[in-house]
Design brief:
46% helix, Rossmann fold, five-stranded parallel β-sheet, 2 domains, 15% strand, 15 helices, alpha/beta
Length: 329
């Protein structure tokens, strides 16, 4: 690397670290500034019978679109309304029962005027997210979420950087506070995220397991020659061992067979070869939990028997291939 190239690398890294440090400072100031107004905003949005309508222009508009999406995906019905489009008919998307969250760092964004007037005309709660307490938007709002006076991270102090980072983070804080307030669970999350890898990881074990006649099961007294036939037929690479009460007491895996390999293997009983107290998973556990359990410990495993606590009777079996097919692993 030439001296010039090295200087560029050093300079670029210095700039990047300065940007991140400046924006991190803004976030620390924002966290320290939160108080009753934030709680009142959460109260207001939680009580709204309609949706949270989020609006903003320019960079604040891009942030507003993301904030609305985060609200909607975490149990708070929301939508983004572009303020310029609102002036040409989209005000009809903002209806009785809605609450409005308007983002403008300066608080003087002209394009927001019609959204603000519409909210005032119909008595809709209006929350302003702005850095200027004396701005037009702040004076018009019912509540002001005031961003702290933090420098932008660009050397000119002009490009929205720290301000939009704070807006985004404050939007996330509102969404997560509302999520917690509503008691929104992983099950709720899955219902509105059914697609993609995230939806797959939120499958329940019950959705993916094999049950009934597909279960490879044998008693501790079963001869190993019969046990091997059962393992081969069911194709899970293992055999669950159940006692007279039907409770799972052990497992025979390919690894157990390798460790017991010898002239007497086929004449042994399952109890002499099995591993006692196998790992299990509950039917209502998330598929992601099953994957973590398979990978836990010094020896990853490929199958889990499914047992409903506090019992030990196997209800099903889950193989790593089931997780792969579902897009979990």
């Amino acid at each position: 690397m030439t001296a010039l190239a090295a200087a560029h690398v050093s300079g670029d890294l210095e700039v990047a670290r300065s940007v991140l440090a400046t924006e991190a400072g803004g976030l620390r100031a924002l966290a320290a500034s939160l108080g009753r107004e934030f709680v009142r905003a959460v109260d207001l949005f939680a009580a709204a019978p309609g949706r949270v309508v989020v609006s903003g222009m320019g960079k604040s508009g891009h942030v507003a679109r993301k904030v609305a999406a985060t609200f909607a995906s975490t149990g708070t019905p929301a939508l983004f309304v572009h303020p310029a489009e609102a002036s040409h008919g989209d005000l009809g998307m903002i209806v009785a029962g809605d609450a409005v969250l308007a983002l403008s760092n300066s608080g003087e964004t002209a394009e927001l005027a019609d959204v603000v007037a519409h909210a005032r005309r119909f008595g809709l709660p209006l929350v302003a997210m702005t850095a200027c307490a004396g701005s037009t938007l702040a004076h018009a709002a019912d509540l002001v979420l005031l961003l702290p006076d933090a420098p932008e991270a660009c050397p000119m102090g002009l490009a929205p950087t720290s301000s939009t980072t704070m807006q985004m983070a404050l939007g996330d804080a509102l969404a997560v506070a509302l999520l917690t307030r509503r008691g929104f669970t992983a099950t709720d999350f899955r219902q509105i995220h059914p697609g993609g890898r995230l939806g797959a990881r939120l499958h329940r074990v019950r959705d993916l397991m094999h049950a009934g006649a597909m279960l490879p099961l044998a008693s501790p007294e079963t001869p190993m020659d019969q046990a091997l036939l059962q393992m081969t037929e069911k194709r899970f690479g293992c055999l669950g061992v159940i006692d007279a009460a039907g409770d799972l007491v052990g497992i025979v895996t390919d690894g157990d067979l390798r460790r017991a390999m010898g002239p007497s293997l086929l004449s042994q009983r399952v109890a002499e070869v099995m591993t006692a107290a196998p790992r299990i998973i509950a039917p209502e556990a998330l598929a992601a939990d099953a994957l973590r359990e398979m990978n836990a410990g010094p020896r990853p495993i490929t199958s889990l028997f499914v047992v409903e606590p506090p019992g030990r009777a196997p209800l099903g079996i889950l193989h790593i291939h089931d997780l792969l097919r579902a897009g979990v692993a």
